[in-house]
Write a structure and sequence with these properties.
Number of strands: 46
CATH topology of the largest domain: Methylamine Dehydrogenase, Chain H
CATH architecture of the largest domain: 7 Propeller
Helix content: 10-25%
Radius of gyration: 27 Å
Structural class: alpha+beta
CATH class of the largest domain: Mainly Beta
Strand order of the largest sheet: 2-1-3-12-4-13
Distance between the termini: 57 Å
Number of domains: 3
């Protein structure tokens, strides 16, 4: 009882603070006021669950100010009344919040709101549901068992907790009091705590919002297992953006267009915890693929494979090998492999699947015997690096590393493990680097590169670059003033060299030889640089013309040139001098080759990249666009693996698309659905798969699948 009371007081304090409008800046005459009532906005929620309910609408406000050409003041409040009660608020032009709540309150305050766009969640949906919950020990097993129960609904303006819930219960035959007599619990936390406190004395149930369920446990309001869901309502609209009559029709059109384009702005998807950003009224979530059959197979797409080209037929003579996938981008760190199938199987032959507690972000490393992956513990207080049996998926061993701190987009390791000799190297998002024996998991050495080199800058997304091995050295980028980049002895962790420079970027480095000089190439926070492998001496540095790139994609070697592609500066092709230095004037540029996250892959002079579409560029002709393929499976990020004549793309929900890499026009040869469930089918995967022999290892948000592409 005392714990529930403390939890309620904590949530009450959050609510009191949230009720006070917070403005991005002082009031500006002629400014547009955007009222945010989204319950998942950071000022209206609490940071109890990593990477959730921390939407930063100030980022949207800054973006809209630029797009609309006038300042946008961002105000947070739980209701229109709370916002209007403040002297600083004269009028409201934009409201972002729960659809039914905004409509109800808009009508009450005569705002005549018009819905312009809907916000897609991290699950790919624009909807939410109401959950009917009881105590875990309650005898009720189905909705009809609740007849005669004391049921706590949400406010009538919350469709998921009132109208939709009443319809569901009435359909189940539960006798309910008239709407005006319904018992109301204004907060999900209140209803949940109340039925727990009632215990066996009162048979009760509560209706909570689906979006609130993770927060109840995360904030300590209830303990895991306290409640049980026995019913779920139909989906109702969730968060949407509305314009009020204070914004004229022309401005509403400009606003609507800006909202539709907001997801393309750097960092917006992360800031708003959204898969796609704001979408039109007619948006439909990705179609659900057929369910997995009992035999462990998922039906492939219905469309028949396209005929193969002559080049593609040659692929059949190339046999798969058991060469390891040792780390980021595979054997050569460029996304290239010797073998891809000439067509995908009709059904996904799932050899095994392994579940994880938390959503995955980092890639996989694998041999023919082991699969290595970074994970977190249940409490989200430690990295857990796991070794799985490549044949069965069973865990062979794990290494745990406690961490301190909180990052945007959860705390999971971003980097891909690295296999070298008999060791495997794990790199966590807080800078912990661990070398372990591949067979046993015994730690050989470990260090924290941020602490070791006194890197003091803040990294909201954590350390993301996957370690690189070259000449028995592990290359890392601490981003410290005295060690922008450093080389550690692979066997001992001893520092071989370190080089001063700027803060770290988010992308991974490569090793390449240009002008006869072996060098390491990658991004600091602001510059593209090259360092001599043997000494770490900086050979050259190039600063792009436009600031603000996150520098996530990995540089790509294309013949004797270097391709760099980023969101603000596009794709640039650089040549090198005879002394190994770069010519800072690029020899080709294409601003359409502008991925924020995807790393391009080169097949000869052909460059392939996923960025809301799959596009092919010709490096031999000034990076001219050869063709572009648009398909619902292509997201902002897409992992691509290439052979000499094939391209395998990991699309939405892990759908695999096999593309002819030699064709003069986009030609999808076959496609295969691998999603284990409805939610996974709509997800945009941010991981890179691993291919060893015919086995493809795919990492979904909360599980890994091993699929045989040779079946």
């Amino acid at each position: 009882m005392r714990k529930h009371l403390h939890a309620r007081l904590a949530l009450l304090l959050v609510a009191m603070l949230a009720a006070v409008p917070v403005q991005a800046a002082s009031k500006d005459d002629g400014a547009i006021t955007m009222l945010v009532m989204d319950p998942l906005a950071l000022p209206l929620s609490c940071p109890c669950v990593a990477g959730y309910a921390q939407r930063k609408y100030e980022v949207l406000g800054e973006y809209l100010s630029k797009e609309l050409g006038q300042p946008v003041e961002v105000v947070f409040a739980e209701s229109i009344k709370n916002a209007l009660d403040k002297e600083s608020i004269d009028d409201i032009h934009i409201i972002v919040g729960k659809d039914s709540v905004v409509r109800a309150q808009g009508k009450k305050h005569d705002f005549d709101v018009s819905r312009l766009a809907r916000l897609v969640g991290k699950d790919g949906k624009t909807t939410q549901t109401g959950l009917i919950v009881v105590r875990s020990a309650d005898p009720a097993q189905k909705l009809s068992d609740l007849d005669g129960y004391r049921i706590l609904f949400g406010p009538s303006e919350c469709d998921e907790k009132f109208a939709a819930a009443r319809a569901l219960l009435e359909e189940a035959g539960v006798d309910l009091p008239p709407e005006k007599d319904a018992e109301i619990s204004h907060a999900c936390s209140d209803g949940a705590c109340m039925i727990i406190d009632w215990g066996d004395k009162i048979r009760g149930a509560a209706v909570i919002s689906s979006y609130a369920a993770p927060l109840l446990e995360g904030c300590g309001t209830i303990k895991k297992g306290d409640l049980r869901v026995i019913g779920e309502t139909d989906e109702v609209p969730f968060v949407a953006a509305f314009a009020t009559k204070s914004l004229d029709k022309d401005d509403q059109k400009k606003l609507q267009k800006a909202l539709y384009e907001a997801g393309k702005a750097p960092g917006m998807l992360v800031a708003l915890e959204t898969m796609l950003g704001f979408v039109p009224e007619d948006f439909k979530p990705a179609a659900t693929k057929p369910a997995i059959k009992a035999a462990g197979k998922t039906p492939a797409a219905a469309s028949p494979p396209q005929p193969s080209t002559d080049e593609s037929k040659k692929a059949a003579s190339i046999k798969p090998t058991t060469r390891a996938w040792p780390g980021w981008l595979g054997p050569e760190r460029n996304g290239r492999v010797a073998w891809l199938p000439d067509s995908l199987p009709e059904t996904a032959n799932i050899l095994w699947r392994q579940s994880f507690l938390r959503p995955g972000m980092g890639g996989l490393a694998a041999t023919d015997r082991h699969v290595f992956v970074g994970d977190r513990d249940a409490a989200n207080r430690a990295d857990v690096f796991r070794c799985l049996d490549a044949t069965t998926g069973e865990e062979l061993w794990s290494v745990m590393q406690p961490t301190i701190g909180q990052l945007d987009y959860d705390n999971l390791p971003r980097a891909t493990p690295l296999i070298y000799k008999d060791w495997v190297y794990f790199f966590g998002a807080f800078g912990d680097l661990i070398c372990a024996e591949m067979e046993t998991g015994k730690i050989v050495w470990k260090t924290n590169i941020r602490m070791k080199f006194l890197a003091l800058d803040k990294l909201p997304w954590g350390t993301c670059s996957s370690p690189l091995v070259v000449d028995d050295m592990i290359i890392v980028n601490p981003g410290a003033s005295t060690a922008a980049i450093a080389a550690l002895n692979a066997a001992t962790g001893e520092v071989k060299w370190k080089t001063p420079g700027g803060p770290q970027g988010y992308g991974s480095f490569i090793a390449a030889t240009f002008g006869g000089v072996s060098q390491i190439i990658g991004h600091t926070q602001n510059n593209l640089c090259g360092w001599k492998v043997s000494t770490g001496r900086e050979l050259w540095s190039v600063k792009p013309g436009t600031d603000g790139d996150f520098n996530v994609p990995t540089p790509v070697v294309v013949g004797d040139k270097l391709l760099v592609a980023t969101e603000n500066n596009g794709g640039r092709l650089y040549a090198f001098n005879n002394d190994g230095t770069i010519n800072p004037e690029h020899v080709a540029v294409n601003t359409k080759l502008n991925p924020q996250m995807s790393t391009p892959v080169a097949v000869g002079d052909r460059i392939f990249c996923v960025n809301h579409r799959l596009e092919c560029f010709d490096a031999a002709n000034g990076l001219r666009s050869t063709w572009a393929a648009r398909d619902r499976t292509f997201c902002e990020y897409g992992a691509a693996i290439a052979s000499n004549d094939r391209l395998l793309v990991q699309g939405r929900g892990g759908e695999l698309v096999l593309v002819d890499a030699a064709s003069a026009k986009p030609q999808i040869l076959s496609r295969l659905s691998c999603a284990p469930d409805k939610t996974s089918a709509a997800a945009e995967l941010l991981t890179f798969p691993a291919l060893v022999g015919t086995r493809l290892y795919l990492r979904f948000e909360q599980e890994i699948l091993c699929i045989d592409l040779g079946a």
